[in-house]
Amino acid sequence: MNFGKKNKAEVTISILCFNRLNATKDCVNSILQSKTKYDYNIILTDNGSYDKANKDFLIETYKNNENIALLLHNGNMGFIDGHRKALEIATGKYFLLLNNDIIVYDGWLDDLVDKIKKDKNAKAVGVHPCKLDNNGVGGIVSKTDFDYVEGDCLMVETEFIKEFGLFSPKLYFIYYEDSDLCLRLKEHNYGVAYCDTNKIVHIPMVKAINTSKDKTRHVHDNQEYFKKRWGYYLKHKTFKNAKYIIKRKHAIGDTLYTLPIAKTLKELNPSCNILLETDCPQIAKIIPYIDSTIDTGSISYDGYNVLDCDFAHENNPMTPIYEAFWKSIGIKVNSITPDIPINNDVNAKLKDKYNFPYIIAHWGPSFGWDGRNVDKETIDCISKLIKNEGLKIIEVGTSKNSKYSDYVLLNQEWDVDIELVRNSAGFIGIDSSIMHIAQALGTKGSAIFGCVDPKTRLTENSSIIEYTADAVCKFCWNKSEPPKTFIQCRRGDNICIKNINPIQFAGIAVKHITGKKMSKLFINKNNIKLENLKVDWGCGFRKEKGYVGIDIQDYDNVDIVCDVMDVDKQKLPKGSCIEIRSLHFIEHHTYKNVIKILKEWKELLANEGVVRIFFPDMSMLSRKTNDARMLDFSLGQWQNQYDVHKSWWTQDLMVKFLEEVGFKNVKAIPYTGPLHTVTNMVNRKEICCTSGVEGEK
């Protein structure tokens, strides 16, 4: 809701109320009646009061007040999320959290604002200074020696705290949020100030939680997190020589994003000691600002400040991974890109052995992630296209490799992989640890994304560009309910990966890495003489004997790899074919493109040339079965991005298309090739549905 004329006030005051209407009235009235030199507005939040009179009174009394905006929640969001929601709409330069059991007097706001303005380093100012014991329990103390200021009356800079983070997402509902915030500020070398004023009176009477059982649960859960997060500070009451454990158990690429956190901590406190607890220590071992790595669960956390990144991204799948990490633990990183130092010895050896630059390829496999694994045929096709541009490929990874790579270096040490990427011309492959290394080093590249949204894996202005196949269900990992650890395709067909178009991907990668457009696709694998050809066009993995196999996919029996929509006439000359045979190919194209294909074939045929086209005949199929399930095959089997039927045919329709293009003596012909059948599930009969049509040039 709008604040009316007070939209640009100096201070936005956030007040939560949960029942106890009289306390809220007294608090708000004392604010409205007090004198102050600073303009303010109020966000008054009803936090799901079950007393209907509470909400009705707020609406009736304050809905037209230009100082006040109302937020009305259906349920109790607690102190943490209640104020967090208010911060989202706060417009004042300063944001003030105020309990509704507080009464204020003339000049109260002046004291707070003057204090935060005077103390330039202070990012939080409060009126009740508190000290922590070794278990993280706080109590009000004198102004001279305190750890934090209480959240009952706490002022912060609005824009700063929106970016820095008001309360940790690891804390729930209420308790420890104010002490955690103040320690996070101190950790970043910001000040926390005490405002000595007698114009604010706290009358504790409002309870945000109904039962002692609720209170005990929240106190226990939040205290356990707080003690682990601030273990070193609670023991030593200083950040000097602080000891940190950063936790990220799985995923090498994800572990890479914990390194900027370590770097930031070292910049904030050069004397600190940082351990990385992970099952993937490979990268961290070569980073100077990680003091050591430890296995998961190998040591006690006692005396360490523990930064737990486990499940940070899994619990917030729509948030970029690096942002999920630092927001979860409250460390505002200075740069999301880790500095990976050069290993001069490894670098020199690689340069002596390989004639750089190469394209670095990494295809996985990505275990447990169906929506990242690319099939072997697609990998080979992409690699062949890259090679066709005169580029060389070094493939790294584990077990999956392409027969077209110049070198396959599997299971290398990570310092070797890093230097390979550093020296390369670019990267191609899947969303993986190697991709993240390329991104960190600023190496240009193109990566395939299926189940994972690239917006959550690529940094702003990344050197890597994404390629995503067209599938309704893509990015399902991010869309699924958290927490998520791995993805196995719920459809069972991995269509987001099978729909990858290798020509498109290779073209995007080549343009991004080299700055040049990829050449038209035409690969004559066996150096076949291009004249008097009998062509089996779209032969796939099953080529007719005595024919030259042409296909967009590079199967073993394919002789020429090319795209029928982009044939270079200089490479496949006009009039070079005496026969073009097409079996179950034409239905994989739209009617508009079929016209273009037929015109292309007509130019490629010699004067006496013949085209013979075989296709699933829908009229034949519909006559032979009335079971709708039997028609499902007409959409294709969706085994890859090309195996989708985009048009339906009958003999009469195919004759019409051939005659329209200009073919002569067009007629139906019998089909005697391998059966393309569909099984009737009711009577178990095989129904042949293939028809043939031929035409002469």
Summarize the helices and strands and which ones pair or pack.
Blueprint: E1 11-17, H1 21-33, E2 40-47, H2 52-62, E3 68-73, H3 78-89, E4 94-98, E5 102-104, H4 108-118, E6 122-126, E7 129-132, E8 138-140, E9 148-149, E10 153-157, H5 158-164, H6 177-187, E11 191-194, E12 200-202, H7 212-229, H8 231-236, E13 243-247, H9 252-256, H10 259-268, E14 273-277, E15 292-294, E16 305-308, H11 321-329, H12 344-353, E17 359-362, H13 376-388, E18 393-397, E19 407-410, H14 414-423, E20 426-430, H15 433-441, E21 445-449, E22 464-468, H16 476-479, H17 495-498, H18 502-514, E23 522-524, E24 533-537, E25 548-551, E26 560-562, E27 577-583, H19 591-604, E28 605-616, H20 618-624, H21 651-661, E29 664-669, E30 677-679, E31 686-688, E32 690-696
Parallel strand pairs: 1-2, 1-4, 2-3, 6-11, 13-14, 13-16, 14-15, 17-18, 17-20, 18-19, 20-21, 21-22, 24-25, 24-27, 25-26, 27-28
Antiparallel strand pairs: 4-10, 5-12, 6-10, 7-8, 7-9, 23-26, 28-32, 29-32, 30-31
- General form: elongated
Kindly state the mean pLDDT as a whole number? 88
Q: What is the total tally of β strands?
A: 32
Query: Quaternary status of these chains?
Result: single chain
Overall radius of gyration: 34 Å
Proportion of residues in helical segments: 25-40%
Strand content: 15-25%
Name the structural class: alpha/beta
Describe the structure.
By secondary structure, the chain is an alpha/beta fold. The chain has an eight-stranded mixed β-sheet with strand order 23-26-25-24-27-28-32-29. β2, α2 (52-62) and β3 (68-73) form a beta-alpha-beta unit. α13 (376-388) crosses α18 (502-514) and α14 (414-423) packs across α15. Mean pLDDT is 88; it is low at 208-212 and 677-687.
